[in-house]
Amino acid sequence: MFEKNLAISDLLDEYAPVLSARHRLLLDYYYNQDLSLSEIACEIGISRQGVRDGIKKAEEELLFMEQCLHLHQKASDMRDAAQKLLSGADEKTAYAVQAMLRAAGIEPEEEGV
After folding, report:
1. C-alpha angle with apex 34: 32 to 38, nearest 5 degrees?
2. pLDDT tens by residue, 60-72
């Protein structure tokens, strides 16, 4: 059985523009639209094995990019630090922290951030 690595979905959000259009499409179908390998194969017109191989290669690319650049980890660390700041912050400070996150391209979490 081909196991989904749900962390890939987060990496796809971060690095999608760097992937080829085909890899981006395969990962979008598989992770975001939750289509099966057979459904994707039928949609694109390739074999199920071709879909699986394409998804695995795209996943490897995403993991390699994160291993080199750490963009997803840095955004997660920044979100965690902001959460700590907000836990004892007044409304004005909370607004400033949220604005800084948005300026850094990180969407604050709904609860508290």
Report:
1. 130
2. 999 999 999 998 8
